[in-house]
């Protein structure tokens, strides 16, 4: 037996030991093998407070991460390197998931009830929109230490639920105050001193919002008024304008079975497709003039209205009782060209970044279906427990996602 | 000394052995530590046939990969997981660089002289445009085994140099034949039987091309004719149209010091900014009607004309003798708002995907400068040997990049 510099072992056994330790390495460091995160993502498992880590090349589940609290409503943004998913839970929990190790890298209970969040342009700050106690809280993405607290209090001293929180350029976040009909811009260049710009009287009860892929146009849906509120972030001095006033969901109010989601990115190069609240219609809006240029009849009340990345198709899912269907609108003809029935309760859709496939979460059959967007054929099925949102890492590179 | 199942070692020494093997692991597997590739990229070192692997969060060089041949003209596309850079060299070499291990993962000499390449929508195929012997060759991204050969031979039997090779949706590649004035679409859904659609007489000497971010509009620049050739891939049956005929670089032909690059993505939501050949101007084109709506005077002959990802600014670099300058055009006012002098021979620019920073390669001072696009301040400097192209991994997720 040889002893060299304090290390002692039978030399003929070294290869075996190296093998053992190599097998241990992944356990110690969570590095099964080097892998690119560009084709990875997470699937929210809403009932179990867990996420599946998935990859879109082989279309497989890589790991499951548990302990994320109440994910009955959840959304996700990504760190700029695509490795970490920041998961915003319904219970106010902010969880940081490491996709490479399949482990929870951090978690804070930052409020009592939250609705979503956003990440700053430089990737250093993650902001969370809260229902309870309202307002926005901002955290360091590295440490999850709170760096700013922005209570949403109007001139009358009322606090408000915050919805439609989006990131724009210049370390700005934009969000809407549901209870006081306001839109705020928070400039976080100095997180210790957020600069707030407030727009009041923007319309009754903003319920969600989207921002254009260039970070310029912020559009809030109004639950209590007709039309949408539009803010041009290149010209905030021009104020908030009301658009699509002729779209009056109030004129013939129907029961709304599920609030539509606006952050669905139904934007093509020159049009935006929006879910009509409580109607079986998708609105088509010209992006140059922000006026309605058409409507597409669909099978139910739309929830997510999402553009395939090339803008040639719009995919729509629906509220109960039509939530087992997905319809595909052809953009050039503005017609529904396909109705799919992936299974009971299709909760969300996520396109691969170049748009060849779409992943559909089918909650009540505990499956995720992968569909080819050209042939409409199902090309893979993954198991998941009550899946809802699906979020791929390409979002790391997109303003407003 | 204990012996268990053939493994034998002093148990008190195990931790040390684990440590040794853990230190060895990175050497064996090139896994320094798990890391996301989303903030990584490569810088071409043109004179030494090498690339630097860089990351944009800490703004550092992680490794250098050598042995890539003649990179005096080089471009890069990424695997769908963002881990592998496919580098197209001037000498016909196609190299596959592993960003995580900092090693060459494969290399083939696929032709005698090549000009660039593209990757298919599904990430399985990489295509290379060749000057010598002309045509396009297609390779499996996993193995670099050739799967298709598309000679560029016109009706008269002449072979042609191929330029402006771009990927679109549906496993299609689009490219131009410099010597026979054609544009071809190659549908590679079945790589064994590429389906070719040819458009002839598209204008004299197409020299480069770009495709819109949605993969719909292919625009080739013409060296021997006025205007540009436009193909709408949603309506290929409509054929190739000539646009911007009033832009006559031929009317007052000046010496062209360096061919402009069109693949520079000077596209905002509704405009495209194009380098005017041989003129000190940037052309502004309306994307709805494809007509010129203005020109911006600049300090020299533009080479790359690139939009900041939010479309608010256009950055331009120049041919000799103004190649030490970079100008920034403000999109709303269409004015040059800043002239930067980063150093001698600014070869390329690459924005971080959300646009907060731009990386500039300054060849003759062997530096890469990182500039804040809001303040225009230099925030970091990296050393590189005769740097030219800079390519970040977010390109993995973009049609046409």
Largest interface: A-B, 74 and 74 residues
Strand order of the largest sheet of chain A: 5-4-3-33
The share of residues in extended strands of chain A comes to over 45%
Show unreliable segments of chain A. 1-15, 17-31
Question: Structural class, from helix and strand content of chain A?
Answer: mainly beta
Largest sheet of chain A, in brief, is: 4 strands, antiparallel
Intertermini distance of chain A: 60 Å
Give the CA-based shape of chain A. Answer: globular
Round the mean pLDDT of chain A to the nearest integer and report it.
90
Q: How many strands appear in the DSSP assignment of chain A?
A: 33
Query: Mind telling me the C-alpha Rg of chain A?
Result: 23 Å
Account of the 3D structure:
2 copies of one chain form a homodimer. Chain A is mostly beta strands and 401 residues long. The first copy, chain A, has a domain at 1-34. Chain A has one helix at 14-29, and strands at residues 3-4, 7-8, 40-45, 50-55, 60-65, 75-78, 84-88, 93-98, 103-109, 113-119, 125-132, 136-140, 146-150, 162-167, 172-177, 182-187, 195-199, 206-211, 217-222, 228-232, 240-243, 271-275, 281-286, 291-297, 302-307, 313-318, 326-330, 335-340, 346-351, 357-362, 367-372, 378-383, 387-392. In chain A, the strands form 9 sheets. Chain A has a 4-stranded antiparallel beta sheet, with no helix packed on it. The first copy, chain A, has a 4-stranded antiparallel beta sheet with strand order 6-7-8-9, with no helix packed on it. In chain A, strand 3 (40-45) and strand 4 (50-55) form a beta hairpin. The longest helix of chain A has 16 residues, at 14-29. Chain A is globular and about 55 Å long. Residues 1-15 and 17-31 of chain A have low confidence and may be disordered. Chains A and B meet through strand 2 and helix 1 of A and strand 2 and helix 1 of B.
């Amino acid at each position: 037996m040889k002893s060299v510099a304090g290390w002692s072992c039978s030399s003929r056994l070294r290869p075996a030991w190296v093998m053992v330790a190599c097998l241990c390495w992944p356990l110690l460091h969570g590095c099964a093998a080097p892998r690119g995160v560009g084709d990875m993502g997470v699937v929210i498992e809403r009932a179990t407070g867990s996420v599946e880590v998935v990859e879109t090349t082989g279309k497989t589940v890589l790991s499951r991460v548990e302990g994320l609290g109440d994910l009955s409503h959840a959304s996700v943004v990504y760190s700029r390197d695509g490795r970490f998913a920041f998961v915003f839970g319904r219970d106010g929990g902010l969880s940081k998931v490491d996709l490479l190790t399949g482990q929870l890298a951090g978690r804070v209970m930052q409020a009592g009830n939250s609705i979503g969040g956003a990440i700053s342009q430089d990737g250093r700050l993650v902001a969370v929109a809260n229902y309870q106690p309202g307002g926005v809280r901002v955290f360091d993405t590295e440490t999850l230490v709170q760096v700013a607290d922005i209570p949403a209090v109007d001139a009358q001293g009322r606090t408000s639920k915050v919805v439609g929180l989006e990131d724009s350029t210049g370390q700005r976040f934009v969000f809407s105050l549901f209870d006081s009909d306001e839109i705020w811009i928070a400039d976080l260049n100095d997180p210790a001193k957020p600069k707030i710009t407030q727009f009041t009287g923007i319309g009754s009860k903003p319920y969600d919002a989207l921002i254009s892929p260039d970070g310029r146009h912020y559009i809030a849906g109004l639950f209590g008024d007709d039309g949408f509120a539009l803010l041009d972030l290149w010209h905030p001095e021009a104020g908030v304008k009301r658009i699509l006033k002729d779209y009056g969901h109030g004129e013939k109010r129907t029961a709304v079975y599920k609030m539509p989601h606006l952050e669905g990115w139904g934007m093509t190069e020159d049009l935006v497709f929006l879910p009509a609240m409580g109607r079986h219609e998708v609105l088509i809006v010209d992006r140059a003039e922000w006026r309605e240029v058409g409507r597409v009849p669909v099978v139910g009340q739309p929830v997510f209205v999402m553009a395939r990345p090339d803008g040639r198709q719009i995919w729509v899912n629906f509220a109960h009782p039509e939530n087992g269907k997905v319809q595909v609108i052809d953009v050039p003809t503005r017609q529904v060209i396909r109705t799919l029935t992936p299974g009971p309760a299709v909760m969300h859709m996520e396109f691969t970044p170049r748009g060849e496939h779409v992943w559909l979460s089918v909650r009540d059959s505990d499956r995720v279906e992968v569909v080819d967007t050209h042939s409409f054929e199902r090309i893979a099925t993954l198991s998941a427990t009550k899946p809802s949102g699906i979020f791929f890492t390409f979002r790391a590179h997109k303003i407003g996602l």
